[in-house]
Design a protein that fits this description.
It is a multi-pass membrane protein. By secondary structure, the chain is mainly α. It is elongated. Strand 5 and strand 6 (460-461) form a beta hairpin. It has a two-stranded antiparallel sheet with strand order 1-2. The protein starts with a helix and ends in a 17-residue tail after the last helix. The protein has helices at 3-20, 24-44, 47-80, 83-117, 124-153, 172-176, 179-210, 214-249, 251-257, 292-298, 308-334, 341-350, 354-358, 372-381, 386-416, 423-431, 435-449, 471-502, 508-524; strands at 158-161, 166-169, 270-277, 282-289, 454-456, 460-461.
């Protein structure tokens, strides 16, 4: 097995996925914020809300288009770089991807044109419905993608067919309602909402600092702070749900995130800080919060969370069981017409561990010929590199709590201090614009790197999933993808900065006239346009 090809394939997919996820969270959150703003416009008939909707929708549209471009390229890699993976689990993995393309993406792609070009051709209510359909379609796309990814983390509703040598779906509803997939969906979507809230808050704060578009900026801050506060709380709460589900489905990942080398007495503490040492299997200068990990991971005071060493020993037992399944599988395949009953029964008993036997293919062509040393090495391979998981998780969590504090402060100022914001707070809001993307990328790193050495946890090792490509081909395509995605990223940043600097340029006259009337009304309480000879005859404000 050419490990350089495996690592290059992993690097290429990681690069394209992380590039793609620069666009996804803003799309998810900004679509909802735009829909909320348009709903307020429909309810109040105030032109300022229409202008806000159009402005933030313009930024959403730029991000949406580039997100689609990067997503399509990423999905092609399943066939290009991961052909054996596609063959082995395509029966399950392909279903949610197909539904995503046929239903969710079709929904948002169909209505996004009406959203941008239907303002003067549809009623206000109809256009608001279209905007909500775009938002729902965007979030449905995330649902089906995360159902597919959640199955890779916790492969339920499927079983291995010894005749076809593939995983086949046995229950679509188990795949659909997979606890890992559902927890990942709500957590990821909430993180996208926080990303958009921080983005809107930061851009609006920049306008406030520059003394431009003050009315739009104040209202946008109020929406972003309210929406972001609820989203930030939900990210933390739903992240706790992900930790609880990992206790059942991905114990090694959870132990690695915590650098928990030994099984702790229940309830286990949470390691707030420390320096994991994988060679010595200990965490130096560890600072613990008593009971916290036990409560998060088990929701009890007496259930243990297994440590890395115990999980490695379990993996070795499962590898030996998998060798028995592999031997029975070879017997069944050699006697396809009349497989021996003993082999069939043996395979059924040990088939759940077949994937662990495949870990030995890195070291030996036939797992049945593996030595004890090779089995021990394969069991050790089930331990991911701990220190990057440990720190990435803590960066993500730390930023999550920081977002709660920031949103709470701006919500308080917007709700109880007349939308008056200190300049230091506005500057801080501008500076932290990139941080939600850092948190999101850290979260995906934890989710995917923590699953190694598996492509599908416990079923298919990463080293077995790749296509038969050469290192040169992968290096060339990797360079091509890096170049292409970098150009797209530069285009994205250029367009976003251009339109942010340009500001809300649509419906300017109508909005300025409304603003003048509104300010005059606040001063005189007569509702007249300043300098006009009679009462205003414009629609209700």
């Amino acid at each position: 097995m050419e490990l350089d090809v495996v690592e290059l394939s992993r690097l290429q997919f990681a690069m394209t996925a992380m590039y793609h996820f620069l666009f996804v969270p803003l799309t998810l959150g900004l679509s909802i914020i735009v829909a909320i703003m348009e709903t307020v416009y429909v309810m109040t008939n105030r032109p300022i809300w229409r202008q806000m909707t159009k402005f933030w929708a313009t930024l959403f549209g730029i991000n949406f288009v580039l997100g689609v471009a990067t997503g399509i390229t990423m999905e092609f890699q399943f066939g290009m770089n991961w052909s054996y993976y596609s063959h082995y689990v395509g029966d399950i993995f392909g279903a949610p991807l197909a539904i995503e393309g046929l239903m969710a993406f079709f929904l948002e792609a169909t209505f996004v044109g009406l959203m941008f070009f239907g303002w003067d051709k549809m009623s206000k209510v109809a256009h608001a419905i279209v905007t909500w359909l775009v938002a729902i379609g965007s979030n449905f796309s995330a649902l089906w993608i995360l159902i597919a990814n959640g199955w890779m983390q916790n492969p339920v509703g499927a079983e291995f067919n010894p005749v076809t040598m593939r995983m086949e779906m046995t229950s679509f509803f188990e795949v659909l309602f997979n606890e890992v997939a559902q927890a990942k969906f709500v957590h990821t979507v909430s993180a996208g909402y926080v990303t958009a809230a921080v983005f809107v808050l930061g851009v609006s704060s920049w306008y406030m600092l520059k003394g431009r578009h003050i009315e739009l900026a104040r209202r946008s801050i109020a929406v972003a702070a309210s929406f972001g506060l609820a989203s930030a709380f939900s990210v933390v709460i739903l992240g706790d749900e992900s930790g609880y589900s990992a206790t059942h489905s991905q114990q090694m990942k959870l132990a690695a995130i915590e650098a928990m080398w030994h099984t702790e007495e229940a309830p286990a503490p949470f390691t707030l800080f420390g320096f994991p040492d994988q060679e010595d299997r200990e965490t130096h200068y560890a600072v613990h919060i008593p009971w916290a990990m036990g409560l998060i991971g088990t929701r009890s005071l007496d259930d243990e969370i297994p440590g890395i060493n115990d999980l490695e020993a379990r993996a070795e037992d499962r590898i030996r069981s998998g060798i028995v399944a592999y031997d029975a599988l070879q017997t069944i395949r050699a006697n396809r017409d009349t497989p021996p009953e003993a082999a069939v029964l043996s395979f059924e008993e040990h088939s759940a561990d077949l994937g662990f036997a495949f870990l030995l293919l890195r070291y030996v062509d036939d797992p049945r010929e593996a030595t004890d040393a090779q089995i021990t090495q394969a069991a050790e391979d089930t331990i991911p590199t701990v220190w990057p998981l440990f720190w990435a998780f803590r960066i993500m969590v730390g930023l999550g709590f920081a977002f709660i504090g920031m949103m709470l402060y701006f919500f308080y100022r917007a709700s109880f201090r007349g939308m008056q914001f200190p300049r230091w707070a506005l500057r801080a809001a501008v500076i932290v614009i990139p941080t939600p993307w850092i948190a999101a990328e850290m979260g995906w790193f934890v989710a995917e790197f923590g699953r190694q050495p598996w492509t599908v946890d416990g079923v298919l090792p990463t080293a077995l999933s790749v296509s038969h490509l050469g290192a040169t081909e992968l290096l060339l395509t990797l360079a091509g993808f890096v170049t292409f995605y970098s150009v797209l990223f530069i285009i994205e940043m250029g367009l976003m900065v251009k339109y942010i600097r340009k500001g809300p340029y649509l419906d300017v006259e109508e909005t300025e006239a409304w603003t003048a009337r509104h300010e005059h009304r606040l001063r005189t309480h007569d509702g007249n346009v300043p300098g006009a000879s009679g009462p205003s005859t414009t629609p209700a404000e």
